[in-house]
Q: What sequence folds into this?
């Protein structure tokens, strides 16, 4: 299927081509025609599936049909409202809307908290057709009367499950009360918990249900592994893996903000440039940490679950769970940071004895067993006898002899499993500089396979 066959306006197709997309992803292929018909949708799609373009492209098409070319602010009421749970996601969605709509006379802005309101007020005054916002700051603007939502025709709730997790339900209800009843609403959620179904009942009219990945299924392109290790040895193990395998661009999840700060600090002291991103950091700090990470200035970004939402870095290769998340659904979100846009990724969990139950719950949710490994020198129970790393224990920096390869499917088999996904777009040919369609394994070559192989070396099976 091609984007042309979806019937999108030429200005939109041009922008899509500029992005380097050759074919719609499964969520785009399913959602775009339905949204173009004016129907509400409830879509189960994880980040990384291309869902942003899935809702933005048809919205732009529908809006463009009645777009005013006048520069008068009065001719540009807010016609579309896109709500996201986090600032980072809001910023990224706005960037996408801007890119896909660059040849259309539609104006977009983003509003989120943690920064001065005045520039946002100034922007809104100029007449904005599409607003991407986080709920709290949006309500601040409502209170200050700097935004009027009475002409909204299109509403998108992006990552609705996360918005509920973050306690935004009361804010969402207040916002809904301000919107016209006559509108088109699109709800996106990685998971369909009961509360999401209740929210959709109150929000959507006769929605078309769209699901691209199996519900609660971890991305197929992610290789998952769990190292069993004592809590107090986790930092050593993490530093050891990063250094010995020369891992770059590593996203590490901790459970608490304090834990994130402490770990980033400790890794920095270990000679691994690290920064932390969490809710207590100011927006400029968060933006800087993220851009340093994207630019490779910072090698490790330590994040809490909430702060990491919306981080979209093409081909982010490694995600570590330094601590297991509070809920199994968070694991799905976390590992959604890697293996995006068809690239491969590793999701590596460091699991203490106390966390084994959580690991079992995760496996139950994703309906898949996560291979468990014990790394020589980091065996559980060895922490009390020694807190030093293998290097300090006389290894003089040399790796231990690899014991045995872990029980992961061979690379070729994993590749074949991924590539067998039906209905997935084909890779771009002769266009290797372009982004590959997602859900396809073809882009794995971009990623240093050496690192995966190296990661798998030096491992010792649990039952050895
Ligand atoms: P999302 O799930 O919306 O966060 O998108 C994840 C990534 O996929 C983003 O980096 C997009 O630029 C990229 N993307 C979106 N649509 C396509 C497509 N049709 N082909 C290739 N990449 C895409």
A:
């Amino acid at each position: 299927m091609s984007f042309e066959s979806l019937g999108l306006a030429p200005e939109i197709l041009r922008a899509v081509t500029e992005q380097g997309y050759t074919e719609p992803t499964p969520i785009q292929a399913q959602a775009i025609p339905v949204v173009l018909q004016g129907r509400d949708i409830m879509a189960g799609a994880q980040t990384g599936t291309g869902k942003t373009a899935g809702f933005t492209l048809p919205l732009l098409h529908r809006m463009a049909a009645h777009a005013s070319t006048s520069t008068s602010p009065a001719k540009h009421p807010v016609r579309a409202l896109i709500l996201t749970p986090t600032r980072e996601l809001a910023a990224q969605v706005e960037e996408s809307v801007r890119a896909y709509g660059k040849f259309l006379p539609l104006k977009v802005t983003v509003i989120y908290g943690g920064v001065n309101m005045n520039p946002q007020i100034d922007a809104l005054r100029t007449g904005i057709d599409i607003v991407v916002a986080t709920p709290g700051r949006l309500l601040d603007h409502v209170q200050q009367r700097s935004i009027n939502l009475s002409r909204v025709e299109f509403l998108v709730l992006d990552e609705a499950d996360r918005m509920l997790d973050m306690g935004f339900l009361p804010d969402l209800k207040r916002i809904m009360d301000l919107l016209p009843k006559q509108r088109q609403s699109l709800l996106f959620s990685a998971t369909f918990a009961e509360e999401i179904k209740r929210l959709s009942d109150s929000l959507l009219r006769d929605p078309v249900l769209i699901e691209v990945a199996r519900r609660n299924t971890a991305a197929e392109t992610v290789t998952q592994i769990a190292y069993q290790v004592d809590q107090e040895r986790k930092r050593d193990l993490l530093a050891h893996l990063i250094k010995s395998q020369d891992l770059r661009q590593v996203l590490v999840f901790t459970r608490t903000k304090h834990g994130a700060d402490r770990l980033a600090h400790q890794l920095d002291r270990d000679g691994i440039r690290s920064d932390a991103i969490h809710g207590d950091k100011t927006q400029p700090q968060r933006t800087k940490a993220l851009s340093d990470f994207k630019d490779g200035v910072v090698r490790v970004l330590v994040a809490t679950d909430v702060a990491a939402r919306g981080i979209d870095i093409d081909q982010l290769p490694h995600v570590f769970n330094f601590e297991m998340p509070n809920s199994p659904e968070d694991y799905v979100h976390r590992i959604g940071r890697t293996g995006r846009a068809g690239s491969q990724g590793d999701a590596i969990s460091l699991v203490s004895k106390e966390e084994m139950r959580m690991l079992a719950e995760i496996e139950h949710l994703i309906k898949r067993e996560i291979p468990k490994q014990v790394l020589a020198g980091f065996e559980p129970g060895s922490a009390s006898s020694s807190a030093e790393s293998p290097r300090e224990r006389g290894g003089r920096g040399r790796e231990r002899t690899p014991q045995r390869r872990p029980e992961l499917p061979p690379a070729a088999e994993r590749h074949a499993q991924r590539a067998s996904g039906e209905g997935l777009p084909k890779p771009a040919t002769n266009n290797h500089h372009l982004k590959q369609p997602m859900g396809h394994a073809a882009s794995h070559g971009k990623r240093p396979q050496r690192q995966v192989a190296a990661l798998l070396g030096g491992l010792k099976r649990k039952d050895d």
